[in-house]
Amino acid sequence: MNEQRATNLDDVWINFDPYTPLTANSDFYVERPGKPLLDLRRALLRSRRLSRPPKYYLSGHRGAGKSTEMNRLAMDEDIRDQFIVIHYSIRDFSDVNDLDQVDVLFTIGAQLFLQYTDKEKGYGKKLPKELLDELEGMRGQITSRLRMTNKELSAQGEAGLRAYFLNVLLKSKQEEVSRREIRQELQPSITDWLRQVNLIAAAITTQEGKPPLVMIDDLDKPPFKTAKTIFHEYATLLEQPAFPIVYTVPIAVFFTREFVTISQGRQFLPSIKLFERKNPNRRWEAGFHTMRQFALKRMDVNLIEMEALDEAAKLSGGVMRDMARLIQLAVDHALNNGRSKIVAEDVARSASELRSDFRRMLSGEDIEVLRHVRSSQELTNPEQLAPLLYISAAIEYVNDESWVDVHPIVLPLLEQSDE
């Protein structure tokens, strides 16, 4: 992404890409009120003194900025001083629409090996020969099952294992049949695979004098039912690796009866609060300032009327991605009407487009649940609330305690249903 502040609307559209997270040192980054991930950073730095390596489950609304915060945390100097950081997105190596616990656990071991030994993009270190010999057994079973005869795979030692991991990850992501075969091979012996994963981690710890820290992004992207299965039914397996791990999880996972299985490791990145709880007319200026800064670091102030900017902030519900989507759509509306500046009408039309998406997703029963949310702002009926949080029709905020409200873009749908 070009990180020059935009001086025309076409460049504004580019700078407000809603789906590309910011890099660790991005000039577009805006500090959040309260710096909510300081708790996770502090917990990780303390974790080496714990008897059991912890697992943390980072939740937040889609588009709240989890990936950007993970990028920053992974490059934090103190974190890197204490850990060998292995940071990746599950989407790069698995199909998030067809994901299970075996896929997650396989990528952890594969990425430990690949990133630690990669001379170009990783640490470029070697692992002990005894460990390489240990890994060869599993390699042989899977390559045989998948009938992998690639010439590269015939290499022995580290080079052969790197080719093996890269090829299996590629097949797992792109080929449904191969994905099923890999799972069938690993599932009965998942305990053996976890033992090998822990051997890789132990070797790294011995050689470096510090343990690996694995950070897995985009585990909040699978369908909600899939995420519930992975993080509830197989939570015990996810806790088995003998080193700290940060898993991203859908916010809705914590609004189900089974959430207690991972509740101790919960970390939350809230959306930006814009109004006081139960007082929708009382603005929280720190929140509006943050959202304005989010926009004005990316675009010249003369390209948007302040009324339009504040309206976009209000309609975003404090969700960064929704702010970006509103601005992108408003750019096109402005250009279509021959304007060189975004006005309030452009933002209103953008909101109408996004509202249409919600209209298609929400049932009459959902609308009734959202009405109750709007009137109470309480986290009641979690099983009903979970799917609405998953699609961000409802948004969780934090003051001294958590509360919930209807996404501002959805509010007119509640009124229309009354008519």
Folded structure, characterized:
Helix content is 51%, strand content 10%. It has 419 residues and is α/β, with parallel strands linked by helices. Helix 5 packs antiparallel against helix 7. The longest helix has 19 residues, at 190-208. The two termini are 45 Å apart.
How is the topology of this model organized?
Elements: H1 9-15, H2 38-46, E1 55-59, H3 66-74, H4 77-82, E2 84-89, H5 101-117, H6 129-145, H7 157-174, H8 176-186, H9 190-208, E3 212-217, H10 224-233, H11 235-238, E4 245-248, E5 266-268, E6 275-276, E7 279-283, H12 285-296, H13 306-316, H14 320-336, H15 344-361, H16 364-376, H17 382-390, E8 394-398, E9 402-406, H18 411-418
Parallel strand pairs: 1-4, 1-5, 2-3, 3-4
Antiparallel strand pairs: 6-7, 8-9
Helix pairs in contact: 1-14, 5-7, 5-9, 6-7, 6-9, 7-8, 12-13, 13-14, 13-15, 14-15
Task: Record keyword descriptors for this entry.
single chain, 419 residues, alpha/beta, two-stranded antiparallel sheet, 18 helices, 51% helix, globular
